[in-house]
Amino acid sequence: MTANLLQPQLLYRVGLMLVSRNHWRRMMLFEDSYSKMTRLLMEVADEICNGRLLLTHEGGYNPDTTPFLGLAMIKTLSRC
Predict the structure, then answer these.
(1) Full domain range(s) for residue 31
(2) Mean pLDDT in runs of 10 for the chain (80 residues)?
């Protein structure tokens, strides 16, 4: 059975706390990292579920970084 027969929908929970400026995580991700990850998810969604993609915010509440990471993802999503 292929993934297409299941009519999947891609759901991704987005944690916006993996940035270099987060002293607890130190994952060294930046705005362009989140943009690239979003683009990859969009490609997978196009391939396996007709472009259906749902992103939800989970984690990452730093007012100094979260808005910029979210904006990077929204900009990427709006380039459809």
Answers:
(1) 7-77
(2) 60 72 66 93 90 84 85 90
Q: Which long-range contacts (CB under 8 A, 24 or more apart) does 6-11 make?
A: 7/49, 8/48, 8/49, 8/52, 9/49, 9/52, 9/53, 9/54, 10/41, 10/44, 10/45, 10/48, 10/49, 10/52, 10/53, 10/54, 11/54, 11/56
pTM: 0.76
Whether residue 46 contacts residue 77, with contact meaning beta carbons closer than 8 Å, is answered with no
Q: Give a yes or no: residue 70 inside a domain.
A: yes
Tally of domains in the chain: 1
